[in-house]
Amino acid sequence: MTKRMLFVVVAFLGALCCSQSSYGQAIGSFSGTVTDKTGSAIVGAAVTVTNQATGVTRETKTDETGHYIVNYLPVGIYTVHVEFKGFQSAESKDLKLQVDESRELDFSMNPASVSSTVEVVADVVAVIGTLDIVLGEVDR
Questions:
Q1: CATH code given to domain 25-109
Q2: Cystine design at 101: which of 4, 9, 23, 28 (Cβ 3.0–4.6 Å)?
Q3: With 70 as the cut, is the pLDDT of residue 127 above it?
């Protein structure tokens, strides 16, 4: 019985030492707040985090306070892109993420420029026939 117990303990310790959870994870995260120029939170803004080396992207949306978080990102260099309808998109490039780094990155978005075009279309009204009648009556 003691040999069996010793085997179980050794097997358990071996599994514990060899498991990935016992090693340090090479991950980090980005988080922050997205606001407009007045400081009001932008709810539902799309946040895309792209690893520049691999092209792998992760997406999320801001919550009711304008806050976002993207966890469990491998170490690397990233681009964070934010967009929301009615605002100009915002982007931050070449962001180096280190091991166990929680990087805070806030965005303040500008309203999108509005351009409008007014087109006036009119029909030509025939007034010549009326003038002939008026002039004809004057000659009489």
A1: 2.60.40.1120
A2: 28
A3: no
